[in-house]
Amino acid sequence: MVRLLGGLAITVMALYCSPHGRTGRGRGREGSGLYPELAAYRISEGNSPNVQAEVGRLVGLLPIALMAVLFHMEPAAMYPLLHSWYGWATLGFIATMEFVGAIIIRKIVSIDV
Q1: Residue 10 DSSP SS3
Q2: pLDDT tens per residue, range 10-51
Q3: Distance separating alpha carbons of residues 113 and 93, to the nearest angstrom
Q4: Contact of 15 with 40, CB cutoff 8 Å
Q5: Dihedral sign, CA of 64, 68, 69, 74?
Q6: In the chain, what's the furthest Cα-to-Cα distance?
Q7: What is the C-alpha separation between 70 and 25, in angstroms, rounded?
């Protein structure tokens, strides 16, 4: 089953290429093979690349949305974040880590199969 961006889920019949038999203790035989037809279209774990990109975008924006909700719910508790040097340092650290995380995730996702 492949899930597309609009929510449409389609069933696809594809050839499964299992790995060579291994005797090591690694991951095991299940789930370590490849569907070459789906890999050519970069479909991974039943999700199209657009779905994967949308999920990544939402996960990246979640901390910013959470901060906006907290500013709305508890403005007095969030006041020091914008009115002190350590609040600005914290926001700078958060922005830096978001940027570094986005670069790392982009590198991981762009690996060709």
Answers
A1: strand
A2: 888 888 887 776 655 655 555 667 788 888 887 878 888 888
A3: 34
A4: no
A5: positive
A6: 61
A7: 46
Bridge partners, residue 17, by sequence: 34
The domain in which residue 34 lies consists of 2-109
d(CA 85, CA 8): 48
d(CA 22, CA 39): 23
Which pTM value belongs to this model? 0.62
Give burial (CB, 10 Å; 0-12/13-18/19+) of 82.
Answer: exposed
Other CB atoms within 10 A of residue 43 CB: 20
Q: What type of residue is 16?
A: Y
pLDDT given for residue 101 in this prediction: 86
Helix (H) or strand (E) holding 3: strand 2-3
Domain count, the chain: 1
Residue 94 to residue 81: CA distance in whole angstroms: 12
Average pLDDT over residues 54-82: 90
8 A C-beta contact, residue 2 and residue 47:
yes
